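Bumping my old thread because nobody answered last time. Still need a sequence for this structure:
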């Protein structure tokens, strides 16, 4: 984990040591445009990419093989997105996660891929939650408190984002949250569609997540008019600056997810 993001190394076709961002908020996998030659990929067509703040048309490469650990996924479509960074070569999306139960252990910096009913799976001390798939986006139901009022909704789980929590613009606007929480700063965000946008950072008094309360959390209020941050299907999105405080077991097939607090609980948010 670096700067709140998870990275793993994979082999793409015959090219080894391709560095991927592990992203539960991406329903497809991606190659950074800067790493197209490094990964030895050929363009096969185009597709639409829906980023956090907009949609754009991008190239794609079909019928690829991606290997990680002892596992191999075949016939993988890799979307080509021109990220303005060399930090990672690609994005490891949920299409590569399906077929296994996945444990993210932030204490040991390990990701474990299990077969269903594997005897090594240990759910002790984990809290189980129902996992909702909203247009293939994993989400859980939870709440936060602002100005003495409890707000509940579905919140996406986005390990590929390095922030804490972003409230979707329709939810923030409908509930007038900007007037109900203290502004403590601002931040610049960049989505996969290439757009850069500013969001206010406000102080949320309390978040109830997986049966636990976390207090005085800095969160972002989106003002997007398009893209995933403008969705009306979810209230917001937890980034890995929040998620890293919980070891996690993800069971996409049975739509279940498990959380337990770990050693990152008291690390600072900013």
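Sorry it took so long. Here it is:
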């Amino acid at each position: 984990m670096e700067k709140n993001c998870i990275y793993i190394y994979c082999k793409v076709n015959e090219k080894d040591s391709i560095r991927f961002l592990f992203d539960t908020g991406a329903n497809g996998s991606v190659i950074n445009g800067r790493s197209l030659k490094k990964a030895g990929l050929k363009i096969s067509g185009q597709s639409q990419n829906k980023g956090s703040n907009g949609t754009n048309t991008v190239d794609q490469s079909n019928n690829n093989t991606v290997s990680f650990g002892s596992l191999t996924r075949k016939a993988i479509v890799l979307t080509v997105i021109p990220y303005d960074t060399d930090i990672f070569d690609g994005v490891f999306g949920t299409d590569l996660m399906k077929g296994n139960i996945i444990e993210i252990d932030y204490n040991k910096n390990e990701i474990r891929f299990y077969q269903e009913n594997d005897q090594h799976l240990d759910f002790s001390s984990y809290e189980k939650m129902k996992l909702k798939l909203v247009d293939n986006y994993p989400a859980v139901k939870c709440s936060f408190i602002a100005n003495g009022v409890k707000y509940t909704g579905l919140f996406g789980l986005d390990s590929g984002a390095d922030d804490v929590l972003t409230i979707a613009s329709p939810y923030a606007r409908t509930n007038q949250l900007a007037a109900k929480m203290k502004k403590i700063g601002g931040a610049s965000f960049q989505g996969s569609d290439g757009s850069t946008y500013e969001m206010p950072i406000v102080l949320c008094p309390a978040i109830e997540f997986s049966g636990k309360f976390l207090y005085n959390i800095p969160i972002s209020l989106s003002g997007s008019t398009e893209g995933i941050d403008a969705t009306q299907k979810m209230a917001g999105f937890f980034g890995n600056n929040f998620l890293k405080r919980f070891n996690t077991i993800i069971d996409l097939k049975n739509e279940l997810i498990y959380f337990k607090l770990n050693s990152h609980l008291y690390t600072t948010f900013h």
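The CA atoms of residues 164 and 241 lie 5 Å apart. Let me know if any region looks off to you.
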